[in-house]
Amino acid sequence: MEYFETNPQDINSIEDEEEEDEIGIDRIEEMIEDKLSEIKEGNKIQKVHHQIFFYYNSLNIVLGKQGTGKTTFIMKELIKMNHIEHLYGAIIYVAQNAGEDETFKQLKDLIKTPIYGMNYEKFMPALVQYYKQAREKHLLIILED
Prior knowledge:
three-stranded parallel β-sheet; 5 helices; 37% helix; 18% strand; elongated; P-loop_NTPase
């Protein structure tokens, strides 16, 4: 069996080589930041509020088995929005049997933002119609399986 002696100076030179930025990562990061800073603030993904688990300009997905509290979680976040100014003008609740979910039916009256329930067949035409009109507010869409 052969053993190699290592010199600490050799190890430092190897580490220096690994840290050398041959492709200009720092410059690339800077260029990306410069370009992204030009994006309007309203177009960025941003939290609705630090105590509300929704983000604007994004897909907010809640997954889980039936009966695990997904609808309760969503409704709780919507109820929290009653207490802040937010950008949602309406909520569309889409399900096969729109509005039949017991949790949804029990809690929907606690939400001040208008909620429209519909099935999947009516959803796409309604969405297209909604976006044909100029809107200042965001639309929150809840899709349930």
